[in-house]
């Protein structure tokens, strides 16, 4: 018996999907119908294809007209979502190669929605990120919203979680309904708090029912919006959650090259950045950023060397015997007006060695300036 579908079969299925409110299947079947009709009815196929494309463009453009009111907690009237548009970032995220590839792939699917739909392929609508705190999960969600020029909606778990049975579930439902009603990126941070394993006997029945609601919402999520979830404790998530997300990215602490590149972006010399990247392990860029800010303040407020400040703030074991780093420190302190004897005491070397390091640095600066002049 033939299983080949005719144009009428596809159209009938599309109508059924439309009546059920399944917009994704409806659009996919209509596009399949258009491809089926191209050869025999080219003009009709073009007209229908144009209508479908217009529908897709309308659903992917940001407009808050006719959108549901922003959800609030019924008792406290506190906003359940933090909304941000446009999304601006102070720096471009830095990921390991494998993570970079997955983020780029997710964005390519979103940028080429029409091409995928024309081939009856559904672009990714959901992204699950798991990994230690401070490894870039929240930043990645912001980057996705920025690159797609969509508003970023972040769930405020403190306001969503209620001590009253049923209230938490209702709050989550209102958030999901709101975010699915217009093009946006919805970030569910600390996702493990609301998507725990249903075999956890310590949880009340409401949270277990909430997982079922989340699973259904992920399955039915509209193509126009993006659902992003982030967790520091992936092991706590219900196994069914992992299978529902279109894209899953595991985050980890940055490797040595990432740390070095990031530290250098703060105008720290390569030799110092290399030393720091060797001594810092299992530390997120968020923590390194915080320590860099502390070190910068020490330089201004206490007249210290940036290297010595970083040594203390990052709990590094001490200055290495590397003469290049000692030269950097000696010259920086000299520029701040420190006497050679004080520099010698700080570095644990002789005054003669300090004088030698300063002479070397002066010559290196001269050579660098000469090279720039020659190049120019």
UniProtKB/TrEMBL annotation:
Record-linked SUPFAM superfamilies: P-loop containing nucleoside triphosphate hydrolases
Coiled coil feature spans: none
Domain AAA+ ATPase: 123-255
CDD domains cross-referenced by the UniProt entry: RecA-like_protease
UniProt family annotation: Belongs to the AAA ATPase family.
PANTHER family in alphabetical order: 26S PROTEASOME REGULATORY SUBUNIT
Name of the molecule in the record: AAA family ATPase
């Amino acid at each position: 018996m033939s299983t080949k579908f005719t144009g009428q079969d596809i159209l009938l299925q599309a109508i059924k999907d439309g009546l059920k409110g399944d917009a994704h299947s409806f659009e996919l079947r209509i596009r399949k119908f258009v491809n089926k009709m191209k050869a025999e009815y080219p003009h009709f196929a073009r007209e229908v294809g144009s209508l479908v494309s217009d529908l897709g463009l309308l659903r992917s453009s940001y407009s808050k007209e006719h959108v549901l009111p922003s959800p609030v907690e019924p008792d406290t009237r506190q906003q359940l979502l933090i909304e941000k548009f446009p999304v601006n970032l102070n720096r471009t995220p830095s990921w390991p190669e494998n993570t970079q590839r997955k983020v780029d792939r997710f964005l390519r699917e979103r940028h080429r929605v029409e091409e995928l739909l024309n081939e009856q392929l559904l672009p990714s609508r959901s992204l699950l990120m798991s990994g230690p705190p401070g490894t870039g999960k929240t930043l990645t969600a912001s980057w996705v919203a920025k690159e797609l020029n969509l508003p970023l909606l972040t769930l405020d778990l403190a306001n969503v979680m209620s001590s009253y049975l049923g209230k938490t579930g209702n709050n989550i439902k209102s958030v999901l309904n709101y975010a699915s009603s217009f093009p946006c990126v919805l970030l569910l941070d600390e996702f493990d708090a609301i998507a725990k394993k249903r075999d956890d006997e310590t949880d009340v029945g409401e949270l277990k029912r909430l997982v079922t609601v989340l699973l259904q919402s992920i399955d039915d999520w509209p193509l126009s919006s993006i659902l992003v979830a982030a967790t520091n404790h992936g092991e706590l998530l219900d196994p069914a959650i992992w299978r529902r997300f279109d894209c899953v990215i595991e985050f980890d602490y940055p490797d040595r090259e990432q740390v070095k590149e990031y530290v250098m972006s703060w105008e720290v010399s390569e030799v110092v950045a290399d030393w720091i990247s060797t001594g810092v392990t299992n530390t997120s860029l968020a923590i390194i950023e915080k320590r860099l800010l502390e070190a910068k303040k020490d330089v201004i407020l206490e007249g210290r060397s940036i290297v010595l400040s970083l040594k203390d703030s990052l709990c590094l074991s001490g200055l290495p015997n590397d003469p290049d780093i000692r030269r950097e420190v000696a010259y920086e302190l000299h520029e701040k007006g420190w006497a050679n004897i004080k520099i010698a005491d700080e570095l644990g070397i002789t005054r003669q060695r300090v004088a030698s390091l300063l002479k070397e640095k002066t010559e290196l600066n001269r050579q660098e300036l000469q090279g720039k002049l020659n190049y120019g």
